[in-house]
Amino acid sequence: MKTIAVLLAAGQGKRMHSQLPKVLHLLGGKPLIWHAFNALREASQEPPMVVIGHGADAVRQAVEEMGEAQFAVQEQRLGTGHAVQQTEALLKGKSDLVLVVSADMPLLGTGTLLGLIETQKENEGPLTMLTVRSDEARGFGRVVRDKKGQIEAIVEEAQATPEQLTIDELNVGAYCIQSEWLWPALKRIPLSPKGEYYLTDLVGIAVDEGLAVAAINLEDPADAIGVNTRVHLAEAEATLRVRINQRWMLAGVTLIDPHSTYIEPEVVIGQDTTIHPNTALRGKTRVGSECQLGPNTVIADTTIGDRCLVQSSVLEEAMLENDVDVGPFGHLRKGTHLADGVHMGNYGEVKKAYLGPGTKIGHFSYIGDATIGANVNIGAGTITCNYDGEKKHHTTIEDGVFIGSDTMLVAPLTIGEGARTGAGSVVTKDVPPHTVVVGVPARAIRKLKARD
Fold first, then answer.
1. In the chain, N or C terminus with fewer CB closer than 10 Å?
2. Active-site positions?
């Protein structure tokens, strides 16, 4: 049976008190809708149908960056039932089942949604819903059952009687529905006192027709954390962090203090890597095996090889090969590439530069817009002066060069193989290979023999 997924993402989220559409608030470094969209994508045989409304252009753009999708626009936000109605013209007759999930339910996994679909395939009635048993209602509607345990209705919290408010089985807001039954049933949803059409009323419509409504119950109540306020967002964040950290520890990664370790969903980490307290791994970071990261380190969209050491540093869109050590207090900016065995001391900064194998940078140095060869020694306080006020210029340092402390390299510039600069030199012209230069401005004082 073919299933098409519908993701409801049209709401404003007034309780977030934000100019940003609710579904674009970040959870684990990704928009709320990213989590729901990826779970749905694996459960649907077609690109998910996303219903957009408030902030439609921004939400559409965010979804299109995630993958292929279809869109329906809910111009007037008149409830969840009305939202699904907007998809009829695009989906009617194209599937056997319609899976409907709200984009503010980011912790529902693909496995749960596939279970919902499989249950509906076996259900003689038109509808299967997802429920959870919890003492914390979070504003969810109550699932009302008859004496035989059959579902009779869903009562919204605002309309529930005191007795109904004591019910601990809650409607999570995810449904799998026979499409042939769905489209005409949507037209029979009554207008609520708030002037909206609730998808939950489909349950009562099915029961009135003598049809069976099935349900599956979430094993983990945390899956049902829906985000309506920033308090809920923080709760979901804490749950997601625990799940991600546990997954990596079970995969062979040591977290010295999981409570202070932040790892985003797309990060990949090799076995026997140790992550020290107050370390954050963000974006599409890739970490090899047997690394030591942290403490007090932020690594974003960076690739790190095996056996690397990064202490108290910030790495952004950089690449480290194997056996590299950085820090403490290093800063690798976008476009940095450190080859095997590079050492970068404390308070160093590198931007848009390649450092060859075995090269060492002393502390308090800045290297930007540069290509540096193998086994180069860069003394403390060295600066590549790459910006002239209008343009960035490139510095090339060939293999085996020794740069003395406090050298200023005024780009564009090439330092030839095996050359040396004296401490405090200001180099404004290219230096031939195996040549010593000193002074301000630097001038050649002697040639070196190969053995030197």
1. C
2. 363
Q: Please tell me whether residues 289 and 431 are part of one structural domain.
A: yes
Answer yes or no: do 153 and 211 share one domain: yes
Name residue, tokens 């007090």. 296
Cα–Cα nearest to 226, from 301, 331, 161, 139: 139
Q: Residue 373: how many CA atoms within 13 Å on its side-chain side? A: 15
Average pLDDT estimate for 206-223:
94
Same domain, 258 and 277: yes
| Residue 195: other Cβ atoms inside 10 A | 8
For 410-421, write each residue's pLDDT tens digit. 999 999 999 999
Residue 90 falls inside a structural domain: yes
- Residue 223 has a CB neighbour count (10 Å cut-off) of 18
**Whether residues 200 and 293 fall in one domain:** no
pLDDT tens-digit readout, 321-372: 999 999 999 999 999 999 999 999 999 999 999 999 999 998 999 999 999 9
Q: Which two tokens stand for residue 260?
A: 């202070």
CA–CA gap between residue 373 and residue 279 (Å, rounded):
31
Whether the per-residue pLDDT at 42 is higher than 90: the answer is: no
Residue 49 one-letter amino acid: M
Q: Which helix (H) or strand (E) holds 85?
A: helix 80-85
Quick one: 402 and 381 in the same domain? yes
Determine contact, residues 98/176, Cβ cutoff 8 Å: yes
Q: How far apart are CA 206 and CA 127, in angstroms?
A: 8
Which pLDDT value is given to residue 159? 84
204: amino acid identity, one letter: G
Its domain, for residue 17, covers 3-224
Q: Is residue 452 part of a domain?
A: no
Task: List strands edge to edge, sheet with 360-361.
Answer: 254-255, 274-275, 292-293, 309-310, 325-326, 343-344, 360-361, 377-378, 402-403, 420-421, 435-438, 443-447
Find the length of the chain.
452
- Domain-embedded: residue 338: yes
Q: What is the pLDDT of residues 120-178, one digit of tens each?
A: 999 999 999 999 999 888 888 899 999 889 999 998 888 889 999 999 999 999 999 99
Instruction: Output the six-digit token pair for 88.
Output: 């009829």
Average pLDDT over residues 251-268: 98
